[in-house]
Structure of Caspase recruitment domain family member 10:
Amino acid sequence: MKKVPEGLTQFLLVEVKKMRAQRKEHLLKEHQLQAKNQAMEQEQARLEQRLQELLKVQERCQRLREEWDSNSVELLRLKDENYMMAMRYAQLCEEKNMAVLRSRDLQLAVDQLKCKVTSLEEECSLLRKQAAVVPQREAEERGHPDTVSELWAENQRLMASLQELQGTLQAPGEVPVPGSEQILLDILEHDWKEAQDDRQDLCQKLNSLQSELQWAEELRDKYLQEVEDLQLKYRTLQKDCDLYKHRMNTVLLQLEEIEKERDQAIQSRDGVQLQYSQSLIEKDQYRKRVRTLEEERDELLSKLSQAEGLNSTLEAQLQRCRGNRSLGKMCSSSYSLCSNLSSTWSLADNPAGFASGLVDALGDSAIQSMEVTPDSEKDINRLSTFPFPPCIGSILRRQREERCMPYKSLSCGSFSSMEDATGSGFASISLGAFSSSSSGTYARVKSEICLSTLPSRQEVTRRSLVVQLSSMGPTSNLSPQEKSLGADISILGGNRTGIFVQWVKPGSQVEKAGLKEGCRLIELRVPSLKEEVLSLENCTREVAYLSLLHWDEPSSLVFQLDLQGYQPLREALEEGKKFSGDSFYVRTNLPLLESSDPYALCVKCREILHVTDTMHKGRLEWYCSRVDPLTMRDLDKGTVPNYSRAHQLLKIQEKSNLPGQQKSHRNNLKKRALDQLRLVKSKPQKSSGQPPQQLWLDPCSDPDRSLKPYSLVRPVVVQTPRPVVLSPNCIAPRLIRNLLDLPTSRLDFHVCPAEKLAEEHPSTAHAQEPPVSKSGPQEWKESGQIRMIREAMEKNKHCLLELGVQSVRDLIKREIYPIVIHIEVTEKNVRGLRNLLGKPGQRDTEMLKMCRGAEQALHALPCSWARVEPHAWSHAEELPKVVRGCIFQEQTRPLWVEDGDD
C-alpha cells in the first residue's frame, strides 16, 4: 500500500470543509426560498379568499340589481294603474261638467219661462188698468161732445136765422133791408166764422193730445219690455259667471293635484336614478378593486414563478456540483450567477432607481448592443408598451456609481434622482432620446413640432448682466459623476415664464462658476456637436430637464440673474399655490383611452388640449385641459402621456392596425381609421438658420420617426371676411354658381375665376424653381390671386376659391386663413348631387371614392375645417343655403392652425 502524501490529505480536508460550508450555505438559501415560497402561497390563498368574497359581493350586487329591476317593473305597473285611474277620474269629471252644463241649460229655460210668466202678468195688469181707464175716457169724451153739440146747436140756430134773413132779402118785390139789419148780419157771419175757427182749433188740439197719449203709452210699453229683457240678461250672466267660477275652481284644484302627482313622480324618478347611479358607482369601484387584486395576484404569481425558477436553478446547480469533479469552477460560476440574479431581483423590486440610473450608465457600446434587431423583435409582444431592459453590466455599473454618490433629497425638477418618473415613462424617453450612434456624451434634443412664442407670452428683455461659465477642462477627463452636471441643480418654470434655477448643490462646480438660485437659463452650448446652441428661453420644462441631463461642461451653459422674474414663481411655491410655467396648445392625433390612473384624461382624436405643465408632480407626463374649440375655454383637466410616450402608443396602434393583407387594411383605413387615428407625418428638420424663438416639445431624437402624436396649434381669430374653399373639388364649381344665385349673395361673396387660379397659382407655376428664402420680406412677391383675395377682404366680401390642399397651405403661409368646408357625400345623397357634377356620366362608386379621397386629404391640412353633415340638407337646391349659413358661422369661430408648418 502506497502512502498518501500528507499535503494532499490536508488539501483534501480543506476542500471538504469548503464544500461542506458551501453546502450549508446552499441549504440555508434553499430554506429561505422555501419560507418565501410558503409566504407567497399563504398570500395567494389570502388573495383567493378575497377573490371569493368579491365574487359573493358581485353575486349580491347582481341579486340586488334583479330586485331593482323587478321593483322597477312593479313601479311601472303601478304608474300605469295610476294613469288609468287618472284617466277615469278625468272622464268622470268631464261627465260631471256635462251634467252641470245640462242643469245650467235647464235652469236657463226655467228662468226664461219665469220671465215670460212675469211679462204676461204685467200685460194682464196693464190691460186691467187700461180697462179701468176706458170709462173715464168715455166720460171725458162725452163731456167734450156736449160742448160740441151745444156749439153745433147754436151753429144750426145761427144758420137757420141766417137762412131766414137771406130768404127775406131775396124775396122779390119786398121792401129792401135796412142798413142796421145788414150790419147785424155781417156781425153774425163774422161771429160764426170765428166760432168755426175756434172749433177747428179745438179739434186739432184734441187730435194732437190723443196722438201724444198714444205715443207715450207705446214708449212706456217699449221701455218696460226693454227693462224686463235687461233683467233677464243680468240674471243669465250672473248665473253664467257663477258657473264659470265654479268650473275654474274645479280646474285649479285638478291642476294642483296634477302638480303634486308630478312632483311625487319626479322625486321618485330622482330617487331611482340616484340609486341606479350609486349602484353603478359601486359596481365600478368593485371592478377597479377586482382589477387591482388581479394585478396584485399576477404580480405575486410572477414573483412566485421567478422564485420557483431560481429555486430550480439552484437545485440544478447543486446536483451538478455533487456529480462533477471540477467543484471550484462550478461553484464560482454558480456564485456569479446567483449574484447577478440577486441584483436583478433587487432592481425589479425598485424600478424607480433602475430607471434613474439608466441614462447615466449607458454608453455607446451598451446602447448599440441594446438595439433590437427585427429578428429579435418577433419574439417580443407587439402590444407591449415597456422598453427593453438594459444589460447586466450597465446595471452593476450604475449600482457602483450610486454607492459612490452622496445622498440628496429629491426636489421639484431635481436631476439627481428620477424616482418620481416611475414606470415606462422615463425609461422609454431615455432610450429614445439618447440612443445616438454619433456621440455618447451628448444627444441633441430634437423637436418634431416647433412653434414660435405664444402671443400671450410677453417677450422677456435680456439684462446687461449675462454670466458665462469658465472652462473647467475637456469633457474626456471628467469622471462619470462630473459628466452629468444637471444633477447639481433643480429648475422651475417653462416656456411661458422661462427656465429658472431653484436649487444648486453646495460646493459643486456650477456653484463655483456663479450659478445660483434665481438665475435664468438662456442657452446650452455643445462644443462636441459643431458649436450647436440650444435655446432654453422658450423651451418647455421637460425639454430643459432632459437637455441638462447631458450637460457636461459648465462653460457650455449661458445664464443671467433675473430675480424679478423668479420672485413670482418662488412666492407661489412657498404659498403652495399652483403655478403654470408652461402654456401651449396641441391637437391630438390619436385617441388616449382612460387608464388606471384616476387623474388621466380620456382624449379623443383631433381634440384641442391646453398643456400647462410638462412635468406634473415631477413625472414626465403632461397636465392639460380639454379646450372647447369654439369658445377657447378650458374644460375638464387631467394628465396625458408626454410626446415620447404618446409616440410609442401611436406606433403600437399603427402596428396593431397592420393586418396580413395590406389591401383590406387600406380599404378599412379609408372608411374608419380617420375617426380613430390621425396619422400626421412629421417634416424633416430645417437648417441651422431657423429662428431661436421655438417651443421644443419632443425630447426624442429618433431619426426614423414619421408620425406625430401631437400637433402644436394656436388659435387665430380673423375679423375680416375669410376666403372660402369648398370640398370635394368635383362639385365645387357648380356649388359656387348656385351659391351666387341666392338673394343678396353678390353682396357677401366674390368669385376668383378658376382660369386665373390655374395661370397664377404659385405652387404649380414655380414647382421646379428652388425654394426661396424667407429671411427678407421684400422677396415675397404676391401673385394676382393673392391680390384678388386681399381686395375681396378689403371690400368686406368672402372670396370663393377652387383650390387644393397644397394651395390652402400656401395661403396659410402668407397669413391668409381660408374657411374650408367639406360636404360629406354618402351612398344615400350621392344621387342628389348629380346636377352639381362636371361629368354627367360618372358612376356613384367613382364619385364616392373621389369624395372620400378628398376628405382624407383634408386631414393633412394644418388648420381646422368644417363639415356639412348629410342630415343637414335634403336636396341639392337646399345645399347652397346650408353652405352659406355654415360660412357665416365659421367666420365667427376661432381657427386652429398648426404652428411650424411654414
